[in-house]
C-alpha cells in the first residue's frame, strides 16, 4: 500500500482507532489496579476453610489459660490465636525445671477438645523471668576470656494438628 491509501484509510477509520486505543488503555489500567490493589481476600488464602465449624470459644480459651495459671509452678499465662495457630505462652517460677515446665504443657493438652487439637496447630512458649543462667567462660581467638551466661529458657514446643504429641 502506498502512503495515500494509508492516509485515506486512517481518516476514514479515525474513530475506530481512537476507540480501540481507549479500550486498550482501560484494560491496562484495570490490570494495573488488580496488580497493585488485589481483591480483599484473606491473607491466609483457603487454609482457614472450615474454621467456622470448629468451636473454640473465649470460655474454652480461658479454661486452658486458667488451668495453666492455677498450677503452683506458673506465674502467668496467656493465649493468642493467629489463623489456625494457637500460641500458649506462660511464665514459670524460679525453681521450676525444664521437665516440669514441659509437663505443664503436655497436661494442658487435655483441656483442648479433640476437634480443636485436630484442626489447630498448638505452640507452647515457656519463659522463666527469674532464671539465673549458668556462667561459662570461653576464650576467643585473641586469647581474651569472655564470661557468658547460658539460660535454658525460653523453651518452645509445637503440636501439629495431625500429630498427638508436642515436639520440643
Number of helices: 5
Instruction: Tell me about the largest β-sheet.
Output: 4 strands, mixed
Give the rounded overall mean pLDDT.
85
| Class by alpha and beta content | alpha+beta
Determine Rg (CA atoms, Å). 31 Å
Strand order within the widest beta sheet: 1-2-3-6
Number of DSSP strands? 6
Low-confidence stretches: none
How many domain regions?
2
Supply the CATH superfamily name of the largest domain: ANL, C-terminal domain
What's the CATH architecture name of the largest domain? Answer: 2-Layer Sandwich
CATH domain class name of the largest domain: Alpha Beta
Order of helices and strands: HHHEEHHEEEE
The CATH topology of the largest domain is given as GMP Synthetase, Chain A, domain 3
Question: Which outline best applies?
Answer: elongated
Helix percent band: 25-40%
Strand content: 15-25%
Structure, described:
- Strand 1 and strand 2 (85-92) form a beta hairpin.
- Strands 1-2-3-6 form a 4-stranded mixed β-sheet. It has a two-stranded antiparallel ribbon with strand order 4-5.
- It has 2 domains: 3-36; 51-159, 2-Layer Sandwich (GMP Synthetase, Chain A, domain 3).
- It is built from 5 helices and 6 strands, in the order αααββααββββ.
- The mean pLDDT is 85.
- It is of the alpha+beta class.
Amino acid at each position: 500500500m502506498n502512503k495515500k491509501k494509508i492516509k485515506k484509510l486512517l481518516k476514514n477509520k479515525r474513530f475506530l482507532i481512537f476507540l480501540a486505543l481507549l479500550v486498550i488503555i482501560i484494560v491496562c489500567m484495570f490490570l494495573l489496579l488488580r496488580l497493585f490493589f488485589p481483591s480483599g481476600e484473606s491473607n491466609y488464602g483457603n487454609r482457614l476453610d472450615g474454621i467456622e465449624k470448629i468451636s473454640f470459644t473465649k470460655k474454652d480459651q480461658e479454661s486452658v489459660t486458667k488451668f495453666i495459671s492455677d498450677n503452683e509452678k506458673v506465674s502467668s499465662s496467656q493465649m493468642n490465636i493467629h489463623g489456625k495457630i494457637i500460641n500458649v505462652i506462660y511464665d514459670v517460677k524460679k525453681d521450676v525445671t525444664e521437665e516440669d515446665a514441659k509437663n505443664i504443657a503436655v497436661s494442658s493438652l487435655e483441656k483442648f477438645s479433640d476437634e480443636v487439637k485436630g484442626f489447630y496447630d498448638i505452640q507452647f512458649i515457656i519463659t522463666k523471668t527469674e532464671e539465673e543462667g549458668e556462667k561459662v567462660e570461653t576464650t576467643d581467638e585473641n586469647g581474651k576470656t569472655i564470661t557468658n551466661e547460658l539460660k535454658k529458657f525460653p523453651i518452645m514446643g509445637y503440636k501439629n494438628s495431625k500429630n498427638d504429641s508436642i515436639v520440643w
